[in-house]
Design goal:
The complex is a heterotrimer of chains A (about 220), B (about 260) and C (about 230). Chain A has about 220 residues and is mainly alpha-helical. In chain A, helix 1 packs antiparallel against helix 7 and helix 4 packs across helix 6. Chain A contains 8 helices and no strands. Helix content of chain B is about 35%, strand content about 25%. In chain B, the strands form 3 sheets. In chain B, strands 8-9-10-3-11-12 form a 6-stranded mixed beta sheet, with helices on both faces. A 4-stranded antiparallel beta sheet of chain B has the order 2-1-4-5, with helices on one face. Chain B is globular, with a radius of gyration of 18 Å. Chain C contains 8 helices and no strands. The longest helix of chain C has about 40 residues. The mean pLDDT of chain C is about 90. Classes of the chains: A mainly alpha (about 220), B alpha/beta (about 260), C mainly alpha (about 230). Chains in contact: A-B, A-C. Chains A and C meet through helix 2, helix 3, helix 6, helix 7 and helix 8 of A and helix 2, helix 3, helix 6, helix 7 and helix 8 of C.
Chain lengths: ~220, ~260, ~230
């Protein structure tokens, strides 16, 4: 088979990779904000949960988490009488999203803590509640600071999707292994997906930079 | 004698082992314009920050509008104030900061309207009308849709004043409002404050180094020294024949 | 049986967990070995990349920057498969462990190169000027003045990447390296109990991360911030 014939299955795999990356990145974004905001909460219980989540998920490898959600969680479910079996796609999205969300949580926390304390004082003087101050004053100023790191995390997450092939998710890496098994032509197919991953990563990095520009528009007003 | 609108009753404030307010007794009558002067570290800004609930107190009681600020009466006794009580008390106060502290991600108009909408429950339309009127009053109508970083320091501080006034407080606190400004921008801010003082029965508490301005605008000058009121009186009295030696030393150094 | 040890599935969960602990720890040794090997290779490749990227001629620096970006933006798993299968196709048969360490080294070389660059740029410019004024040769300037001051600054960042490498070692399981996660999965495959082994591996990794961060902290604090002392 020539490399052109590899394209169709690889592009199918690429589509799965992109879907997986997109879904897990969105989940990761929600988790990042929940974890980061929880991390700076005044409530000790919320803060404790956030810290535990962030430290546990940052301190363990993604593959462990992936295998855990796919292989181990159903067993835990059996023990407590719940059906916790997840198909590969769901297990992949959950494991990837929670994984990148834990790292993102630290980014969110750092950006929130970097906002000048005087802004809190101004918000207090105007009698905003803590929640109003967080959403109206603090977060909008913190978000531009988060974007560069979020860009790196998004690309990292894209690379991480390749591991989902190990729980039989039909992504690009999975398809490549399939083709290699069938044709023994390792060099061609693996070179192809290396460049395909690289291409997707560059597009993703570009999109993140556009997003970064969009959220920091007020900083450039009038220039 | 009318009930003072602000009363500090043997108030103590410490930073670690450093005593900033030393059983301070201090009152302000409704509608009075009081300027606090004194050397740095004498506790002037701390008084304003305590009133604006930005700092806690370590002893004594602060009364605003006849009610305790940092305490509330529960079951007949004084207990530390909860969030709800503090929010209720804060409605009476507004503050203008030395560093302006405008919200950089909002336009000038939005800076002024955001709190009235979210905190006072005004509609966007009502808040906008109030904001436009106040910005007109401080002379910034043309800059309504600009962002703070596009304005000069003097303009930003005028927005800060409009923003605080939009909440219709009974007491306005000015914490060294012109100290961070280039000299040529000080005048525009002072003239806004002067107009406020002349036109309103607003209670104003001002901390400033602008002595000439303090003399023009104040009903009373308070000289603070080491966490207590050392001397107070009418501006002319204080500036021309101060009674205390420390007051004399301070005035000699700054005038 | 793994590593010549067997486990106990007949006496309940706790006995099972205790019986597989020594097996998992044997796997942890492989994990640590692979991490260090990968880290050392990354340090070397990273240095090469950093030097090439900083070359004055764009014919060298541009391709170097492209290669670094390429290593950074492609998954470790794919790089590993590439090395494993493609090298074999061209007759280079390496032991799986070495292929794995090589892949880790390649993946992290780009990040390490950036760490080097950051550390060197953080040395105050005045140091270059003083060396020039004292008529020190460029090589001596670099090895005796710049490098000893750059090294303490990069320790925390390098420590972070060592921790990251440790968490990427499980990927090597696909080329049959018997690191901790692979061991847990094999036990799970054979006993149908994945929960206990995988959870234990997670906990062991948390311990490893903690120990690694404490060691890096100690190293960071023991080195004077101003630079490695030279007698």
């Amino acid at each position: 088979m020539s490399w052109v014939e590899y394209l169709k299955p690889l592009l199918q795999g690429a589509w799965v990779t992109i879907e997986l990356a997109a879904l897990s990145t969105v989940l990761g974004a929600f988790v990042s904000f929940a974890a980061g905001i929880g991390r700076v909460s005044a409530n000790w219980l919320i803060r404790g949960i956030a810290i535990t989540f962030i430290e546990t998920f940052r301190g363990t490898p993604l593959l462990v988490k992936l295998f855990w959600f796919y292989f181990a969680m159903p067993i835990a479910g059996q023990a407590i009488g719940l059906d916790l079996r997840l198909p590969p796609v769901e297990a992949g999205v959950v494991a990837l999203g929670l994984n990148i969300g834990a790292y993102g949580g630290e980014v969110v926390r750092g950006a929130i803590e970097a906002v000048r304390p005087a802004q809190y004082e101004a918000a207090t003087a105007l009698n905003f509640t803590r929640r109003q101050a967080l959403w109206t004053v603090i977060l909008p100023q913190a978000i531009p600071e988060m974007m560069p790191s979020f860009g790196n995390l998004a690309v990292q997450n894209l690379k991480d999707t390749a591991l989902a092939s190990l729980i039989s998710l039909g992504d690009m890496a999975f398809r490549a292994e399939q083709i290699r098994n069938y044709t023994q032509d390792s060099t061609t197919v693996y070179t192809m997906i290396l460049f395909m991953y690289f291409g997707i990563a560059l597009v993703l990095a570009g999109l993140m930079r556009l997003l970064e520009r969009a959220v920091s528009r007020w900083q450039r007003a009038g220039t | 004698m009318t009930e003072p609108i602000i009363r500090f009753d043997k108030v103590v404030k410490n930073y670690g082992s450093h005593v900033v307010l030393d059983e301070l007794n201090f009152t302000v009558a409704p509608g009075e314009k009081v300027t606090i002067i004194g050397p740095s570290g004498s506790g002037k800004s701390t008084v304003l920050r305590i009133l604006m609930t930005l700092e806690r107190i370590n002893g004594g009681v602060v009364h605003v509008g006849g009610e305790p600020l940092w305490h509330e009466t529960r079951n007949g006794a004084l207990a530390p104030a909860g969030d709800a009580h503090l929010r209720k008390m804060r409605r009476m106060l507004g503050m203008v900061f030395q560093q302006f502290n405008l919200f950089p991600h909002m336009t000038v108009l939005r800076n002024v309207t955001e709190a009235p909408v979210q905190v006072l429950g005004l509609s966007r339309q009502e808040a906008r009308e109030r904001g436009e009127e106040l910005l007109g009053m401080v002379g910034l109508t043309d800059h309504m849709h600009k962002f703070p970083h596009q304005l000069s320091g003097g303009q930003q501080q005028r927005v800060g004043i409009a923003r605080a006034l939009a909440m219709r407080p009974r007491i306005m606190l000015f914490d060294e409002p012109t100290s961070a400004l280039d000299p040529e921008l000080v005048g525009e801010v002072l003239s806004v404050i002067r107009r406020l003082a002349e036109a309103h029965d607003l209670t104003m508490l001002l901390v400033t180094h602008e002595m000439r301005f303090a003399r023009e605008v104040s009903d009373r000058i308070c000289f603070f020294d080491r966490g207590r009121v050392c001397e107070e009186g009418k501006p002319d009295d204080i500036f021309t024949h101060p009674n205390e030696q420390r007051t004399r030393d301070f005035l000699k150094a700054v005038l | 049986m793994l590593f010549g040890m067997s486990w106990d599935t007949d006496h309940g969960e706790l006995a099972f967990a205790l019986s597989i602990l020594p097996i998992l720890l044997r796997g942890m040794v492989v994990t640590i070995e692979a991490s260090i090997a990968g880290f050392v290779i990354a340090l070397v490749f990273g240095l090469v990349l950093a030097v090439l990227k900083g070359a004055r001629s764009p014919f060298i620096s541009f391709p170097a920057r492209f290669v670094a970006e390429f290593f950074r933006d492609t998954p470790l798993l794919v790089q590993l498969f590439f090395l494993y299968y493609v090298l074999a196709d061209y007759g280079i048969i390496l032991p799986a462990f070495l292929t794995g360490a090589l892949a880790l080294g390649v993946q992290y070389s780009a990040y390490i190169a950036e760490v080097y660059r950051g550390g060197i740029e953080a040395v105050p410019h005045g140091q270059h000027e003083a060396s020039h004024a004292l008529d020190l040769s460029p090589v001596r300037t670099f090895t005796h003045i710049i490098l000893p001051q750059a090294i303490p600054r990069v320790i925390p960042a390098l420590g972070n990447y060592l921790a990251s490498i440790m968490k990427d070692v499980p990927v090597l399981s696909v080329v049959t390296v018997l690191e901790m996660v692979n061991v847990a999965k094999i036990i799970g495959d054979q006993t149908f109990d994945y929960l206990v082994p995988l959870s234990m591996v997670g906990a062991l990794y948390l311990v490893l991360s903690l120990v690694a961060s404490v060691l890096v902290n100690l190293l960071d604090r023991s080195l004077p911030k101003t630079g490695l002392p030279l007698r």
